[in-house]
TrEMBL record:
Gene3D superfamilies: Homeodomain-like. PROSITE patterns: HTH_ARAC_FAMILY_2 (PS01124). The keyword Transmembrane helix does not apply. Keywords: DNA-binding. InterPro entries: AraC-type_N, HTH_AraC. Pfam families: Arabinose_bd. GO terms for cellular component: cytosol. This is HTH araC/xylS-type domain-containing protein. The keyword DNA-binding applies. One of its GO terms (molecular function) is DNA-binding transcription factor activity.
Length: 329
């Protein structure tokens, strides 16, 4: 019987720690020593890495720092945007509940491990993380980040009814309660944040539904790309395909990347372009989606997105046309 591959993590999961390291005085050389990371994992988002390597880095960071509450410290230091598209999706969501739902859906962009869920039980809402072999530092990072981001985006002092962790207490109770301002329990069946049900309807001040719609479609594209990591590697791209990518980038910059314009730049007819791309195992639509996803990655590293700027960056006439076109993919 074929053994199923281990669920992957992605370099974004390591980059969180790298981003926080200077503020925490964490020596990265010592943390990363012995980590079996692929090229690009320390500088590029979306690079697949073994889950075992991600666990090693976080365990190493905890050991090197000597701080049993490292996960909470990292949560406190992460600026908005460190989580890339996940942060921007949350910030532009209409409510806390909507942000949690989107985070659950797209959390595999960080690591495809464990199970996140949001449920309502009477007057209470429960945000749960079930990971039998999870690291305590990561569990505390997730809980701390969830509460602190909710406060930042809503402008309200969000206070859980209860905070529960599967692991045993690792520091003073006061350190936990200082962040959560709520009772904290240990040795629970799973990691869990309990809120009042009405907290789910709490609006976010920064909400932009149209921008959120665009970001959600782009996150879905990225998720689809990352789920192909276990597929056989594609053949090396031909020079022709690279030329089409270059033409697409130029056409996107001019605001009209349709196949007719790309064909003009390539000096062929649209029908010939379609045929040649088909022979290479791809299509105009596939390359356009890939090129736009790459542009979003670059854009989010240098700017805080606005709906109009992001639509322009992707070569759409407006945010409305961007969201409409992306939904068709």
């Amino acid at each position: 019987m074929r053994k199923e591959p281990a669920p992957p993590a992605f370099s974004d999961f390591i980059l969180l720690l790298i981003s926080a390291a200077p503020k925490l005085g964490l020596p990265l050389d010592a943390v990363l020593r012995g980590a079996a990371l692929p090229p690009g994992a320390l500088s590029q988002r979306g690079v697949p890495i073994p889950l075992s390597a991600a666990r090693y880095v976080w365990s190493s960071a905890e050991r090197v720092s000597g701080d049993p509450l490292l996960g909470l410290r990292v949560a406190e230091t992460l600026d908005v945007g460190t989580l890339d598209i996940l942060d921007y999706l949350s910030r532009n969501s209409e409510s806390f509940g909507a942000a949690l739902s989107r985070f659950i859906r797209f959390a595999p962009l960080l690591a495809d491990s464990g199970e996140l869920s949001l449920s309502v039980d009477g007057a209470r809402a429960r945000f749960r993380h079930v990971a039998p072999n999870g690291l305590p530092a990561v569990s505390e990072l997730l809980a701390g980040m969830t509460v602190l981001r909710a406060r930042t985006f809503s402008g309200e002092h969000v206070r859980p009814l209860a905070v529960r962790f599967r692991h045993h207490r690792r520091g003073s109770t006061g350190a936990y309660e200082q962040i959560f301002d709520a009772p904290v329990e240990f040795g629970a069946p799973c990691d869990e944040l309990v809120f009042r049900r009405e907290h789910l309807e709490m609006p976010f001040r920064s909400a932009d539904p149209r921008l959120c719609e665009i970001l959600e479609e782009l996150a879905q594209l990225r998720l689809q790309q990352q789920r192909r990591v276990d597929a056989p590697p594609p053949a090396a791209p031909s020079g022709f395909v690279d030329e089409v990518r270059h033409a697409l980038r130029e056409c996107i910059a001019e605001g009209n990347p349709n196949i007719d314009q790309v064909a003009v730049r390539m000096g062929v007819s649209p029908r010939t372009l379609q045929r040649q791309l088909r022979e290479q195992g791809t299509s105009h639509r596939a390359l356009l989606a890939e090129t736009r996803a790459a542009l979003v990655d670059r854009y989010l590293t240098i700017a805080t997105p606005s709906r109009h700027a992001l639509a322009t960056e992707l070569g759409y006439a407006s945010a409305r046309s961007a969201s409409r076109a992306l939904r068709r993919r």
